[in-house]
Amino acid sequence: MSWRSGSRGVVLTAYHPSGGGDAPGGRRSGQYTMNHDHSKKTTDGASFDRSGSQDSLDELSMDDYWKELENIHETRGNNHEERVALVVKEPDEGELEEEWLKEAGLSNLFGESSGDSLESVVFLSTLTRTQKAAVEKRVETVTQTMRKKNKQHQIPDVRDIFRLQNDSKGKVCDGSEPSTARTSENKNETQDGTKGPKFSLGTDEQKSLLEDMPVLDTDINLEIPFAEQAANLKDKSNFRLPKDKTGTTKIGDLAPQDMKKVYSLALIELTALYDILGTEFKQQKAVKIKTKDSGLFGVPLTVLLEQDQKKVPGTKIPLIFQKLIAQIEEATLETEGLLRIPGVATRVKSLCQELEAKFYEGTFNWENVKQHDAASLLKLFIRELPQPLLTVEYLKAFQDVQNLPTKKQQLQALNLLVLLLPEANRDTLKVLLEFLQRVIDHRDKNKMTLKNVAMVMAPNLFTFHGFGSKTIEQSEFVMAAGTANVMRFMIQYQKLLWTIPKFIVNQVRKQNTERQKKEKKDKAMKKLLKKMAYDREKHEKQEKTPNDADVPQGVIRVQAPHLSKVSMAIQLTEELKAGDIVARFLSQKSGNVQTLKKEEVFLYEIGGNIGERCLDDDTYMKDLYQLNPNAEWVVKSKQS
User: Fold this and answer.
1) Could you say which of 76, 201, 416, 571 would form a disulfide bridge with 270 (CB–CB 3.0 to 4.6 Å)?
2) Which DSSP symbol is given to 179?
3) What is the pLDDT of residues 582-629, one digit of tens each?
C-alpha cells in the first residue's frame, strides 16, 4: 500500500496480489543506493544526513527496510490488474470531535435528553481529571461548531454535563476530588462570548500519590492513568511490568459488556495523554470501497473469518494465516535470512493463484511450498488486506507514536491503541507478533535479530509516505525509522500491549458499582424492584445449602460445575493465589468427569463490580476479595 497527498485528503492505494502494475513513482531495485556513511541518495544524486531519526542509524541500520521495499515493488511490478484506491477524507470542522464522542460512547450528550442519560452520568462520574479535560475539550469544539452551523440541536453547556455528576459529591475513581463548580457565569469565556471549559488537571492529593509511586527505572505503572503520569512525572524509561496482587488482566479476560467500557475509556485516556503531551490525536476515516466477498488475499478480515468459521467453528484467526505460519515453522526457524530473503516472485504469484483456487477445497499441495515462498506469502497477505491490519482509523495514530517525547509514553500509547483495535485485527496481530518473537528466539542461527525483523516487517504493516514522489524527503526517512521503531516496540513488549491497565479495570468496576447504585434509586421502578428483590431473596434462601448459609468470615465458596468437586469452601490467607484454588479442584479426580489440564482451567471472578474476569494464577485472593467482596468465584475452562 502507499499514501499520496491530495487537496482534500489522502489516498491509500491497495494493491491486490494478482493486480497492480508499478506503484506511482515506484522504484526498481538499485534505483536508490545506500552509502556507507549512512546517508541516502535521492534520484537526482543529492544526499543528506539521516541521523535525525529517533534512533541514530549507526544503532539502527535501515538497509533491510529499503531492501524490503524494493522486494515489495518488484512483486507489484509483475502484476497487471487495476488498483483500488481507498480515499481517506479530511473531515469537516467538528466532525472529528463528533465521531470521537460517538466512539467514546458519549454521542447521547447531543440528543434530546443531553447530559441526563443514566449511562452518560455514570460514565462521566468515573473519569479522571485529565480524561474529563479531554472530553470537555471535544464537547466544547462540537458545541461551537453546532452554533456556527445553526444546527437545530439542544446544545449543552459543557459545564452542565460535568456538574451533573459533581453535584452528587462523588469522587472520581483515581481518588481525586470532584471539580469545583464555577462561581461566576462569566468566567473563561471564549472570543465569541460563549462559555468554555475550565480544565483542572490534578490535585495535591493526586500529586502526592504520584510522587509516592515506585521509581524503579524498569517499572511500568498500570495503576495511575498514563495522562496523569505524563502531567506529573519525568520519564523513567520504564519497561518492566510489576506483578499486581489483584491479578494482571489481559485482553480476553473480561466479559464483552466490560470490554465495551474498556474501549471507551482507552480512547479517552489515549486522547488525554496526547493532549497533555501537546500532540494532536486524530482518527482517520475512509470512504467505503467495494471489496472481494470471497477468496484469500485482498479480502477483509471479517469476510475471511465468516468463511473460515463455516469450516472450523469458533475460528478467530484466518485459516490461511495460521497455515502459512505453520508452514514456515515446520521447516525450521533456524534458516538464515528467514523473512528477509524473498521467495521467487513468479513462483509466489503462481502459488497465490493456486491457493485461491484450491485452499478451501483441501487439494492444495503444501509440500511444493518452499519456506521463503511461504514467508513472502505471509507478508503478501498482511499488506494486501483491503484495509490495513492496524485499521484506517488508527494507522496514522500508530505511526505518530514515534513523535511522543519518551519511550515510556510511546509504549503506553501503543498499549491503548491495541485496546482500540477491532477484535479480529487484534487477534491476528497478536498471532503475528508471537510468531515474529519465535523467529527472533532463533537469531543465533537465522541471523534475524529484533532490529532485523522490525526492519523487514515494518513496510508490510505500516504505510510509507512518498511513493508518488520523484525524490525522497528527509522526513520520509524519519518516518521509516520511526515505524521500524514502533514495530520493534510492538514485538519486544507485546505482553505488556495485551494487558489492560489496572486503572482502566478499576474505572470499569467503578462504573458497574455506580450504575448499580443509580438503578436502585430509580423511583419509577422502585416498587417493582422491591418485589423482584424480595422474590429473589426468598428463592435464594430456599436454594441455599446449609454450608452456603453458614460460610464464616474470611472464607469464600468456590463453584466448579464442570469438575468432580462442584463446590468448596476456601479459607482466605495472605498467600493464597488463584492458581492454588484451581490446583485443589483438579486434585479431586473422578472417572465421571472429563479430565482437564491445568493450563485449560482458570478461576473466574463473576459479578459484584465486574461482569466476568478470568484470573491469572498469581492473583492474591485476599487482596482481590477486599476489592470485590460481592463477587462469585467459579472454576471453569475458557471454553465453558
Assistant:
1) 416
2) P
3) 999 888 765 444 566 667 899 999 999 999 999 999 999 999 999 999
Quick count: other Cβ atoms within 10 Å of Cβ 202?
Answer: 17
What's this model's pTM, rounded to 2 decimal places? 0.74
CA–CA separation, 295 vs 277, rounded Å?
44
CA 514 to the chain's CA centroid: 26
Written as one string, the DSSP assignment of 88-118 is: EE-PPTTHHHHHHHHHTT-GGGGSTTTT--H
User: 251 near 422, Cβ under 8 Å?
Assistant: no
Residue whose C-alpha is closest to residue 475's, from 62, 174, 53, 9:
53
Identity of residue 421: L
CA 481 to chain CA mean position, Å: 22
- 424: closest CA among 375, 374, 385, 457? 385
Sequence-separated (6 or more) residues with CB below 8 Å from residue 60: 53, 451, 481, 484, 485
Q: How many residues does the chain have?
A: 640
State the CB neighbour count (10 A cutoff) for residue 122.
21
Tell me how far apart the alpha carbons of residues 220 and 228 are, in angstroms, rounded to a whole number: 14
| All cell numbers assigned to 326 | 505453520
Single-letter code of the amino acid located at 127: L
**Nearest CA to 24 among 469, 383, 462?**
469
Please give the angle made by the CA atoms of 37, 43 and 46, to the nearest 5 degrees: 50
- Residue 159: the pLDDT is 53
C-alpha to C-alpha distance for 530 and 520, rounded to whole angstroms = 9
The answer to whether the CB of 547 falls within 8 A of the CB of 566 is: no
Q: Which domains does the chain have, with CATH numbers?
A: 552-640 (3.10.20.90)
- Written as nine digits, the cell of 269 is 485516556
Q: Which H or E run includes 464? A: strand 464-465
Which runs of consecutive H residues, i.e. helices, occur in 184-255? Answer: 204-211, 226-232
